[in-house]
Every structure is written in C-alpha cells, then in structure tokens.
Design brief:
The protein is of the alpha/beta class. The protein has seven helices and six strands; from the N terminus they run ααβαβαβαβαβαβ. It has a single domain, classed as Rossmann fold. A six-stranded parallel beta sheet has the order 3-2-1-4-5-6, with helices on both faces. This is NAD(P)-binding Rossmann-fold superfamily protein.
Length: 257
C-alpha cells in the first residue's frame, strides 16, 4: 500500500527518481550522447516515442525498427521538426515474425554501425486468440520471443562495440507490473506471462553477459490506463538495479566504473 501511495504522489526512490520524473530530467546529466547508437522498438507512440525524442535531443543516433513504416515516418518527422540535426534510420521489423527479425539483423549489420543501447519497448495484446506466421501465440511471439531473438542476434555487435569503445553496452527491457496479475482469464494471462518472462530474461542475461561489457535492465511502464501512457515519464518501481543505483545507469552515458 505504501509503495502505491509513493508512486501516486511521485516520491523519489533510491535512484533519485520517481513516477513523475521525466525522460529529460533523467538524462540531464548526460546531455551529449553523440557517441551513442541506439535501437528502440515500439517508437510510434507512448514510452517508445518519448524515449526516441529525448535520446535524439541528446544527440544519439537512432535506429528505429517498426512494423508500420508509415507510423514510424510520422514519428521521425515529429522528432526532426523539433531537433533538425537528428540522425534517425528507419527499418522494417515485425517482432512476431522470426524471419523478419533475422532480416532486420542482417540489414543492421550491413550498415556497419556500432551498437551501444538496445531498448526492447514494443509490445501488444491480442484480445482474440491469434497465431503468428511461425505458429506461436501472437502475444507471446511479439512481446517475448521476438525480443529474445532480436537481443540474441544483436548481442555480438554490442559486445564488439563495448570492447572497442570501452563503454559498457545496455539492454533495457520495458516490462510492466501486469506480470504479477492473474484473474483466471487464460487469454489475458498470456500478456502477464510475457511480461514475467521479460523480467526473468533480463536477470539471466545480466548474470551471463556482465563480464562482456553488456548490462541488462528491466524497467516498468507504470500503471497508466490504455490510451493514457505517460509520454515523458519513467517508473522505477519495476527496475531491477542494485540498491541506490541511479536510473540513468540503464543507459550508456558514462565510462564503466
């Protein structure tokens, strides 16, 4: 109950940030990200759109994969209108399709770019039972398996970048407190399972790859109602970080300690 009250009133946690902290506030101490190349999924609205906007403001080069390229073009146009010097590359990606993910990885590799930051933000919930092209339940395929494969394929590039630059890479998995909810509805349970798996995957990846210059975090998207995603806020309630670690360490803003 106390944690809920703290969230609602925006009290700062151990990281120094709370539910009312904005992306711009979180990145104030890291104003120059021109050395960072970031891949962000789910950028056409909500948290993904605001994350892309603020990272562009700080100078990061953005690679924005999207299933709907028209919506991605609109998102890019909004960012460029505000920050004309933005470096933004749009690429096709359907996270429910394993072939599409592999094609994206091959196309990104052909660009010969470094990779410092991967933010797995995209997600969906199929109200009706749906199956992906690969024969997998659609919500699970998109929210978990798709990001799992994407991360696995991009990990080599991130490790190589960390070795060359000396800057620790970051993988940020956006999850939700919904992973702890289950009312007995098996269809809705699938969304909760995907959020839970994303959290567990982050913890396992953090243990496996920490010594290779790559760090994995999970952050929650807060408790917004559908259609009311807080466009410029981060919630720390579900962030798996060490005690007292600032939230901005989810991003590669500083040299490794």
């Amino acid at each position: 109950m106390l944690e809920t009250v703290k969230y609602l009133i925006g009290s700062n946690g151990p990281s120094g940030y709370g539910s009312k902290s904005t992306a711009e506030q979180v990145t104030e101490s890291c104003a120059d990200l021109r050395f960072v190349t970031a891949i962000i999924t789910g950028v056409t609205s909500g948290i993904g759109a605001e994350t892309a906007r603020v990272l562009a403001k700080r100078g990061a080069r953005l690679v924005l994969p999207a299933r709907n390229l028209k919506a991605a073009e609109d998102a890019k146009a909004r960012i460029v209108s505000e920050f004309p010097q933005s470096q933004i590359i749009l690429m096709a990606l359907d996270l429910s399709s394993l072939n599409s993910i592999r094609s994206f990885d091959a196309e990104f590799e052909s660009l010969h770019l470094p990779l410092h930051l991967l933010i797995n933000n995209a997600g969906k919930f199929s109200h009706d039972h749906a199956i992906s092209k690969d024969g997998i339940e659609m919500t699970f395929a998109t929210n978990y398996l798709g990001h799992f494969l994407l991360t696995k394929l991009l990990l080599k590039k991130m490790i190589e970048t960390a070795a060359v630059t000396g800057v620790q890479g970051r993988i940020v998995n956006v999850s939700s407190s919904i992973h702890g909810w289950f009312s007995g509805d098996l269809i809705r349970c699938l969304e909760q399972i995907t959020k839970n798996k994303r959290c567990l995957c982050s913890l396992q990846a953090r243990e496996r790859f920490a010594h290779q210059g790559t760090r994995t975090e999970t952050t929650g998207n807060g408790s917004q109602r559908k259609g009311e995603l807080c466009s410029s806020r981060y919630c720390e309630n579900q962030t798996h970080q060490g005690p007292g670690e600032p939230l901005h360490r989810s991003l590669p803003f500083a040299k490794p300690e």
